[in-house]
Amino acid sequence: MRAHEWPCHVCPLTCGTVHHNLELIDTDSPRSQLSSMAPSNAGLLLGLILLRFNWCLALGGGGAAGGGSVFPVVVSTWPFREAVRAAWEVVKAGGAGGSAVDAVVAGCSACEVLRCDGTVGPGGSPDENGETTLDALIMNGITMEIGAVAAMRYVKDGIKAAKLVMEHTGHTLLVGEKATAFAISMGLAGPTDLSSPDSMEKWSNWRQNHCQPNFWKNVDPAGNCGPYHPTNIPPFGSMDPVQNAVVETQGPTCQGWFESNNLLEPTNSHFKSVINRHNHDTISMAVIDKMGHVAAGTSTNGATFKIPGRVGDGPIPGSSAYADDEVGACGATGDGDIMMRFLPCYQVVESMRRGMEPRDAAMDAISRISRKYPDFVGAVFAINKKGVHAGACHGWTFQYSVRNSSMPDVEVFTVTS
User: Fold this and answer.
1) Do both 174 and 311 map to the same domain?
2) For the segment 365-412, what is each residue's pLDDT rounded down to a tens digit?
3) Domain range spanning residue 19?
4) Does residue 152 share a domain with residue 97?
5) Better-scored residue on pLDDT, 393 or 17
6) Residue 384, φ and ψ in degrees, nearest 5
7) Which residue positions form the known binding site?
């Protein structure tokens, strides 16, 4: 099996500090090989390792062997290497280094500029009207403060806007055009058209394909562009007085208020075909700085061809990301409309608080969703306060990127469902 590729759900990396009661675990060599070495060779090996001080072994079983001294650490969804490098440059700085919060902002900002996978930053994921909007979140694990923006228009710096919300307001989440006005008033550039030639071409092709696939269900016309209305709406005048009043004042689309709300209803085939990494993705990043402080954040331009006004899990605390200095952090990606119903990252962190190892916490959070939605697509990574990390996924192959003090560069870990 190749390094960093693990079956089923888990890609753990076990890291720690060598102590005098040294115990080496080698998945390729029996423990007896160490004891059979000549004393002089064993002493030399021990001296070299103690001189190096830090060690890090990829283990199938997970768990930390000894205390952690791998800080700083940066973890990100997907092989977004440049984003991880940008965060690393901040957090590895001399002395105490940069803060975890600043590193997360730097990493997510790099992904926004690079338009990672076309699903982060401006120029990607047009909605039904062809417009690109941004969602972002930043969380400080020391204070539990959060700043977020959702469905933000005309400002390209999503994660920086979220940080401004956290640092300069008593609120957690600002949305839509008011989030835009706030961000510009606080010094971010705008208004700016967030569309690109690529996003507009994608939108034009989608329109030519009769607006398929899309996120509507139980509506007419089912196989064409809107406007849409519920399939079971009766002719006007045959409804009860309350329904008549709603239609009269709000229009027929509000008849959805009177439909049964079965969250577990299977989605239609058009909806399923929308979800994949390149049109439904998020950068979610967690950082532990040199002081052991934890932060997490996300940035995304949401689901491609989403209904205008849709907000995914990106700016929802506990869904796309969560961080707590006392425990660790989590990041998530995938079908945010389903995942936000379960707050998987909050679940991961609370499971680790109760003593679960990162891989078990990640698998547990994903299994809670897959039991209710067997066809959902998503993934999480988990990292505890010692720097031990793991991932779990369902419905696709997931990769996440890591850089810590024992690595010469970013390393990518693969998780299969």
Assistant:
1) yes
2) 999 999 999 999 999 999 999 999 999 999 999 999 999 999 999 999
3) 1-24+50-70
4) yes
5) 393
6) -90, 175
7) 310-313, 333-336
Residue 350 lies in a domain: no
What does the alpha-carbon distance between residue 19 and residue 289 come to, in Å, rounded to a whole number?
A: 22
- Tell me, yes or no, whether 336 lies in a domain: no
Could you tell me if 193 and 250 lie in one domain? no
Helical (H) or strand (E) element with 138: strand 134-140
| Pair (172, 232) in one structural domain | no
Q: What domain count does the chain have?
A: 3
Angle of the 100-114 helix axis to the 158-168 helix axis, nearest 10: 150
Phi and psi dihedrals of 229, rounded to 5? Answer: -145, 155
- Per-residue pLDDT tens over the stretch 307-362: 999 999 999 999 999 999 999 999 999 999 999 999 999 999 999 999 999 999 99
Strand, helix or coil for residue 380: strand
The Cα 98–Cα 86 span in angstroms is: 12
φ, ψ for residue 126, nearest 5 deg: -65, 150
Residue carrying structure tokens 């926004």:
112
- Residue 232: how many CA atoms within 13 Å on its side-chain side? 8
Annotated binding-site residue numbers for substrate: 310-313, 333-336
Burial class (CB in 10 A: 0-12, 13-18, 19+), 299: buried
> What per-residue confidence (pLDDT) applies to 240?
55
Residue 124 sits in the same domain as residue 15? no
Task: Considering only residues 404 and 282, tell me which one the structure prediction assigns the higher pLDDT.
Answer: 404
Instruction: Judge if 198 and 88 occupy the same domain.
Output: yes
pLDDT band at 70 (very low <50, low <70, confident <90, very high): confident
**Whether residue 146 is found in the same domain as residue 293:** yes
Same domain (yes/no): 200, 99 = yes
As annotated, the active-site residues are 282
